[in-house]
Amino acid sequence: MIIALIGFLREPQFESRALVEVQAPMFAGAEQDARLATSLPMLMETQKAIVGSAAVAGDLAPDLRVEVVPRTFLLALHYRAADAEAARSGATAVAQAYVDFAASSQVEEMRRAANLLIARLDSLTRRPEPIQPDVGDVEPPLVALNADPLQDLIPPLVTVPAAAALTGLGSAGQRVLGPVLESALVSELVRSYEATLGQMISARILEAASLPETPLPSGQLWWVMLGYIGSVAVPALVLAARFQWRGSLDFPADVPARLARPCAGSLSLTPAVTLADFLADRPFAQALAELRMRLQLRRAAPDPLVQFPSGRVLLICSTAAGEGKSTLAATLALTLGRSERVLLINADLRSSREFMGLPARAPGLSHLIAGAAQLRDCVHARPELGIDVIPAGVLPPNPQELLAGKRLRRVLEMLRRRYDTVIIDTPALAKCSDAMLLGPVSDEILYVLAAGGRDLEQTRSHLHKLAMADLGPVHLVLNRTQSIALSPLPLWKGAA
Q: What is the enclosing helix (H) or strand (E) of 475?
């Protein structure tokens, strides 16, 4: 809009043209000469540069445009101004200034040629002092004439250099041939002078500048088109530059590019509030089904010789809080619960919160590990959801000691035999290292990454620690990949 407005607010411009003829006597009668094709453009380009120079145009040069009419001796002087009269006067002034400049240059060249002719004639007419002949019958040679400046001006008819001819003559020869040679040299000097005058350039105004009646086309349509292109191109370039030089995880392809690890799946951002809303959201449910299928394909086939096959343990963690780790754990448990026995465990023993509809202090994992409650008291069946749940329980003073103890391993071995899949929701790695303690008792790890994150150094550090601990395979899941900046509400009270 700003660019288009500039086009509408521009003042109208008027342009006047003056036609100037360059007169060059050296090209007279040379229309058929092949040299004219190369010499004429060079001459006209030189005169064009002279017209546009500060010596001729002066302050009018910025608004002046000079064109050479092809294959002619004509220069078209275009001057542009905001007023019609100013345009005509500007073109007239520049044309007259060029004519005056050519005339003054011609006078100066004539004066220089005349001075040169006078100097050469003066050197020609000087006579050396006569030399007295010696005693004897031999006639002395004539002193040589100073013919250095005349060497190039001797006519072609003279086959002997002038100095040699005059020097080789006796006194009688000098009296007879001397005036003849001097006359030939004077004639050659005059012809040289006339040739110099023939090289001079003059100019005349062939067509005076006229008063323009209408202004130049303002090009408002072009300004509107330029504004429209700018409104589309500039944002596109900004977005392209931002996309090219961004350092965040926005798409599944960014995960292997920036973390050097494959992306097991991606979940779209959704404004859902409850678990039912999450599963009802078609893009989210479809992406979750694809993640479930990939996890099922990676699962080892059951051994038919084993009477009681054990299930698998999935550990879900993330770098920081609020990346959607607990939402993924709950929705994945509900999705898997439709076809198998699933147990969801809240392993965050550092914060008290309501979990899957259970009160914060309900018997849970802390009671089970500490031996304060039986398994049947800590496992809460949720038939409406199709899964079983173990909450965190009462917050212990020593959560790391409980998670690092051998009793947790025995508890998980017992749970493996009862369920096909056990999903453990752990606190963020930036908060504590509980996920590192639960990693050895897990079969696979799902590492949740929130789309749009830019600080990837901490994520790389945690992934490196998981790799060095020689745990199970780590699968990266990119969450909230939609561009809509919405934050899903927590599934329990008191969640961050």
A: strand 474-479
Distance CA 308, CA 419 (A): 11
Phi (first) and psi of residue 14, to 5 degrees: -110, 145
Q: What is the mean pLDDT of the chain?
A: 78
Residue 196's contacts (CB-CB under 8 Å, 6 or more residues apart) are: 109, 113, 116
CB 99 within 8 A of CB 227: no
Q: Looking at residues 203-231, what average pLDDT do you find? A: 76
pLDDT for residue 182: 55
Report all structural domains of the chain as residue ranges with CATH numbers, in order of start: 9-128+136-207 (3.30.1890), 249-299+308-479 (3.40.50.300)
Query: How far apart (Å, rounded) are the C-alpha atoms in residues 187 and 204?
Result: 32
- CA distances 231 to 218, 241, 244, 413, 456, Å, are 21, 16, 20, 63, 34
Q: DSSP assignment of 421-456, as one string?
A: EEEEE---TTT-SHHHHHGGG-SEEEEEEETT----
Residues 447, 478 contacting (CB under 8 angstroms):
no
Burial of 334 (0-12, 13-18, 19+ CB in 10 A): buried
Residue 95 near residue 77, CB atoms below 8 Å: yes
- If pLDDT is split at 50, 70 and 90, which confidence band does 143 have? very low
Look up the pTM and report it. Answer: 0.54
The dihedral built from the CA positions of residue 478, 482, 485 and 491, taken in this order, carries a sign that is negative
Q: Would the CA dihedral through 151, 157, 162, 164 be positive or negative? A: positive
More confident call, 80 vs 158: 80
Residues forming a β-bridge with 446: 316, 475
Beta strands in 289-410 (DSSP E): 312-318, 342-346, 380-382, 387-390
Q: How confident is the model at residue 202 (pLDDT cuts 50, 70, 90)?
A: confident
Q: How many alpha carbons fall within 13 Å on the CB side of residue 440? A: 11
Q: Looking up tokens 């407005």, which residue turns up?
A: 5
pLDDT tens sequence across 92-138: 999 999 999 988 887 887 777 777 777 766 776 555 555 555 545 44
Confidence of residue 191 (pLDDT cuts 50, 70, 90): low
Give phi and psi for 421, each to the nearest 5. Answer: -140, 130
Number of C-alpha atoms within 13 angstroms, CB side, residue 9?
6
Task: Give the side-chain half-sphere CA count within 13 A for 373.
Answer: 19
Query: What is the reported pLDDT for 227?
Result: 72
Q: Please give the average per-residue pLDDT across 198-216, as a whole number.
A: 82
